[in-house]
Amino acid sequence: MSEQSDVTQNVPDPVMENVNRMPASQTAPVSEYGPGNRFLTKDRTVHQILGGGRAADSALWRDKYLSAGTLGGSTLAWFLLEKSGYTFMTLLCNILMFVVVILFVWSNVASLLHRAGPPVPELSLSEDFVLSTASVFRNELNKALAIARDVALGKDFKLFLLVIAFLYVVSTVTSWFNFMTCVWIGVVLLHIVPFVYDKYEDVIDHHAKKAADVASTQYKKVDATVLSRIPRAPAKKKL
Fold it and tell me: Quick one: how far is CA 88 from the chain centroid?
């Protein structure tokens, strides 16, 4: 009986073999890039790229209440703007007017009844916060201006193609939806794309590197056959 059971166990199960051949049961390819040498994010984490603050926590769903509140609030605002017919400024002014009236009535009634008024905190921006924000904005704006200059002068043809492709995609997408819908789609994607990439970073890096290698090979072929033959003005000598 024992010999018969051993023979039965050694017989391959065709059902299990078919299941093991399915892609979902196979181990996903592991990226050849270590945590400190990623292909897309380089030496920074997704949380650091997003700023490392509460906005990054919301995008990566590390604070589920904040993420759900952001998505729910943006969806509600988008629904009100789409269905009510109000513009953004009209809806914003009506909400602020309602809030101001409520706080004004609450404060006066509380003073008449000798009770505490509405808990309105003191709102102010510190000088350090303003200077740091302005410095970050200045650095990013200078980077964008430098890229725009390189594209305009034709120094980097690959960058020129990327900018043209990006502007074409943005122009096409914005022709399908209005501004508020595009903003809402951006908020939704901000809470999906970073989260998915952070969870499957190794697999995405693996395939992104392959796609980049293929694109680089095709670009070299086009550059050798077409772009290199385009006459260009000689570079001016610096005096």
Answer: 23
Cα separation, 44 vs 174, in Å, equals 31
- As given in the structure block, the two tokens for residue 166 are 């990006």
Residue with tokens 């809806």: 91
The token pair at 239 is 């005096």
Tokens of 212: 């980049």
Q: Any idea which residue has 């018969």 for tokens?
A: 4
Three-point CA angle 71, 76, 81, nearest 5° = 130
pTM over 0.70, yes/no: no
57-105 pLDDT per residue, tens: 888 888 888 888 888 888 888 888 877 777 778 878 888 999 999 988 8
Q: Do residues 102 and 96 touch, judged by C-beta distance below 8 A?
A: no
- Strand (E) or helix (H) holding 31: none
